[in-house]
Amino acid sequence: MLLFGIDLDYLAFGVLFxxxxxxxxAKSNLIKKVLGLNVMQTAVFALLVTSGMIDGADPxxxxxxxxxPFANPLPQAMVLTGIVVAVALTAVALALIVQIHAxxxxxxxxxxxxxx
Amino acid sequence: xxxxxxLPWLVALPWTGAVLTRALGARGPRMAGGxxxxxxxxxxxxxxxxxxxxxxxxxxxxxxxxxxAPYGVELRFDHFSAWVLPLTLLxxxxxxxxxxxxxxxxxxxxxxxFYALLLLNAGAMxxxxxxxxxxxxxxxxxxxxxxxxxxxxxxxRGLAAWAALKYLLIxxxxxxxxxxxxxxxxxxxxxxNLADVSARFAAGVDAAPAATAxxxxxxxxxxxxxxxxxxxxxxxxxxxxxxxVSAVLSGMVVKIGVVGxxxxxxxxxxxxxxxxxxxxxxxxxxxxxxxxxxxFLAMVQNDIKLMLAYSTISNVGYIVMGLALASPYAAIGxxxxxxxxxxxxxxxxxxxxxxxxxxxxxxxxxLRGVARAMPYTSAAMAIGAISIVGLPPTAGFVCKWYIxxxxxxxxxxxxxxxLVFGAxxxxxxxxxxxxxxxxxxxxxxxxxxxxxxxWSMRAPMLLAALACLVMGVLGGVPLSFVEPAxxxxxxxxxx
Lengths: 116, 495
Description:
heterodimer, A: Helix Hairpins, two-stranded antiparallel sheet, B: mainly alpha
């Protein structure tokens, strides 16, 4: 589906990516920053996973019922790995935020900057 | 059985070590440290084979799972890998230094995770240097980064966690950009294997998306390398981390970005779809600005670890400028500096760590006169500082000489001047350091009465300092690895 000559799903990924980037840069709350990072990553995963789609293709499993063209299964494997990386990143980030909160009592960047 | 079959073990060995260190480390920190050291030495010993093989017969590959490239994942050991791989061997010096350093610095229950993270970091770094697959580069870069974030935060409380989180957020955005770049490349060419992508680029691709992909990948690598305007995360993270970790971060982890950049040049090799010249102009300027700004900021610091952190920014500037000048001498100098700078920074950070650990002070004003009490540590620090300035006959001289020659060779003598100017600024900082350590009277009783560090800390930094001198005298040895690789690659660097 096209909107202003651009594929609508590509447009959606672009918007999602920018929303995430905006959250990372502009939000003061650390949790929101981490969420923004996750939104960015999700946008990239969505773009990557659609690249394996081929119109009218069968699932890439060879049986009597399926025939070429097959959808490309590789992007899904990559996205799966990417999700694992993203989860690990989020886990480390949240652990650090817990430590920051325990020591400073706040997770707002502007308040952290004033902290001694 | 060929040396190719040894390649996966270069990654698997440290990672096995990481798991074992974490599992068995509960029996005591000595057990954890010893195990980590043993695994790193085994990895280093194993690495000798592939390196000599490359020197004799050139690059070779391993197809993971028996699936041949370009469809399978390929591990490739070329001249660049052979030159960058020894970076990870510096871990062999860092681990024994940590044995005593961690006593009293790190709670007992965190020591086994510390060694496990170091091993994870080393294995991933080796993986990054030998990987010939774009997606694998992404995964290895993430493992390096994640273990680095954790290592920055491991010793301190809130302040360290805050520095680590800043590092994580910027690093996280950078890796997302890299994955986006990888996605673009994959959609454009349908391949992830570096050589295959390069061939398909050369066969002709759409210029705009290809250039976007290159730009995304380059930005991501330059954030990881902390090139000047993208360096904001570095000083805090490197200064707050425990000193052995600072040595690893400053010496090795930032080089991931530089190695990535070299792989990017290999990717663009032979393609007419886009000119690398534009990127080169940008990088040469960014590099020159980084050299001068980094050196200036290093000069005005009083905290020795912050000083060293800013000097890393300056030196990344040297490396990037050398690569981007794209003349044979400059590129060779830049690639040689990737390893030599790591060696120098390990010397300096280990010596700084020893000073801080034994006196409890970390600023130049407080550390005055420490050379009398700690002569070995101060000597290592002084040799490291001479090398970072680039005075002959040290490791730093060879690279900077080559980069300066390369600037003239490229007909851009102005950048040679930037290099000399940066070196002068660092020289000022070196004189300040030497003056404070050797020629000022001690202001604190703790500094005057400090005892020299134990041999387990002294030997690694003295060995590293010795290596700085040896690499200066034997400056020709690295050229046998670097020269053929660089000269093969140079057309891709652009005019």
